[in-house]
Amino acid sequence: MAKAFFRLQKFLRRTQFLLFFLTAAYLMAGSLLLLQRTRLVVQQGPRGTSAGQALLVPEAVPGAGLAEPRGAQSPSPRLLAGTAALQELVPSQRHGPHWLMARNSELRQLRRRWFHRFISDQEPMQTAGLKAMKRTAEHKGTYMGCFSDDSREKTLKGAVFYDLRKMTVSHCQEACAERAYTYAGLAYGAECYCGNKLPVTASRPEECNSECKGEKGSICGGVNRLSVYRVEELWAAAPRRRNVIYRGCFRAPENLTDTFPASLIQPNLTVEMCSEFCSKKEFPLAVIRGRECYCGYPTGRFSLHGGADRQLCSGMLNVSSAAGGKYCLVYQTPVQDTRCTDRKFLTTKSKVFVALSSFPGAGNTWARHLIEHATGYYTGSYYFDGALYNKGFKGEKDHWRSRRTICVKTHESGKTEIEMFDSAILLIRNPYKSLMAEFNRKFAGHLGYATDRNWKSKEWPDFVNSYASWWASHVLDWLKYGKRLLVIHYEDLKQSLIPKLKEMVEFLNMTVTEDRLLCVENNRDGNFKRSGAKQKNFEPFTQEMKDLINRYILTVDEALRGRNFTGLPREYVPR
């Protein structure tokens, strides 16, 4: 034994061999790590930047009419830039302005980050269901068990949201309690569902085996399985998320009991009592006539179109039904209208590849919300945006060329990017509003407002100079290279939602019922209202900026009319 040990010691003393051995081990370890990382990113290639986005605002272009502004006067027709003249500027600019280059880099970072996040496989958790039972006491709600999540007939569908990175049991419970729901259910480790009815089919505890994305060791359901908690006891501590909203005074239907599925007669009826009763029944409308409370949805019989004078409903509470007369008060409860919330991917690949194209800040996300709820199918995106996925846009994580979505969001322009699509809905918004919306998003996210410091910084004029030309070139490129276009103006969509939405749905070769469209109208805002203080009569545009933007407005208006489309709405007309 001693002899063998002596030989080993002598061998190790050979310094050159030992250094060689350590160096080789180090290189092998580094090579393995590099190969592993390369395998993840090799599948994602870079996407080119549209030439149209690199369009710079010239100081002076002879013959194009884009010279420096001459004061506050409205530009004459001689100053208008023709479509061809504006587009001729594109090829000469090989490198976009700082803002556009920064934005393209930002989009590439988003794609890369989301690609890595979704390709990682989840290891199965063998004892996860049992762990859920043990950790129940740590959460405030009462654990009801693991249930089957029937996608065809969901019971927990009053409110739905996702969080791929930070979902926890407490987060879901509190969100449902704020909305006055009785039950909170979690699935897939990242999805939260609220409702007042317990799922019917119970499953084995071990089938709920998905770890919560934001809480290691906690269970958030499983594949088609819900971890369900009762949260009614949390109501007192939870702040109410939304108040009851007054919708107006309307002529009552001839037969209220046939029109509305649930009703209550109460001698001392209040708006709060009626709203709470209807919320428990999971109806979005609370209708009051005298001492009668009715719950239901907007329908063809009662569409909430054409409201009456509020004076006709004054003093209606707690009077007899006969005295209540022909009119009724209508309130929106905190409950979501769920008739149009179920969505899915296309069962077969779409034969027509449709783009939902717009300049950033033009309402593309809101249009996707409307289309998804109207058609019942997810929309895709050229970009991977985690914030939007968390808002329920599941198409964000689907590859944009999968053809499993009804249409694909894009802000791209340029011949190559446009000709990939068979047809497109081109959404156009007033550039003044679009520029402000995109600047807000850049500094405060999808639902926030930029600070006063941001608006007064040098970044705002730089942003306008770069993005105003992009607004024009985006529309011009799609008019030039688009194969089949439906032009929708954001302002018209807001003003006449159902007619314009019908137009969009028909363009997508889909048919929808009137009740589903009314449901979309009832949920028209979704989760896309910006929060925080908005400055009234806020005007961040200088006269020089206005003169520049006005020229682009007139150019785009001329191009639209040249393609036999309706020109821009009057409110776009130069300020």
3D architecture notes:
A hairpin with a 2-residue loop joins strand 10 and strand 11 (292-296). 38% of the residues are buried. Among the domains are: 142-230; 245-332, no CATH class; 354-528 and 539-572, Rossmann fold. The strands form four sheets. A five-stranded antiparallel sheet has the order 1-7-3-4-2, covered by helices on one side. It is an alpha+beta fold and 575 residues long. The longest helix has 27 residues, at 15-41. It has 19 helices and 17 strands. It has helices spanning 2-12, 15-41, 83-88, 98-119, 128-135, 169-178, 256-259, 271-280, 321-324, 364-375, 386-390, 415-419, 431-444, 452-456, 459-481, 490-495, 497-507, 514-522, 543-562; strands at 142-148, 159-162, 183-187, 191-195, 211-212, 215-219, 225-230, 245-251, 262-265, 285-289, 292-296, 327-332, 354-358, 380-381, 408-410, 423-428, 485-489. Mean pLDDT is 78; it is low at 36-104 and 110-137. Keywords: Repeat. Belongs to the WSCD family. GO terms for molecular function: sulfotransferase activity. This is WSCD1 protein.
**Largest sheet at a glance?**
5 strands, antiparallel
Q: Give the CATH superfamily of the domain at 354-528 and 539-572.
A: P-loop containing nucleotide triphosphate hydrolases
CATH architecture of the domain at 354-528 and 539-572: 3-Layer(aba) Sandwich
What is the rounded distance between the termini?
97 Å
Oligomeric state of this protein: single chain
Structural class based on helices, strands and sheet pairing: alpha+beta
- What's the number of helices? 19
- What order do the strands of the largest sheet run in, or round the barrel if closed? 1-7-3-4-2
The CATH topology of the domain at 354-528 and 539-572: Rossmann fold
What's the total count of β strands?
17
Radius of gyration (CA) equals: 29 Å
Query: What's the level 1 CATH class of the domain at 354-528 and 539-572?
Result: Alpha Beta
Low-confidence stretches: 36-104, 110-137
How much is the average pLDDT?
Answer: 78
Helix content: 25-40%
Q: In percent terms, what proportion of residues is strand?
A: 5-15%
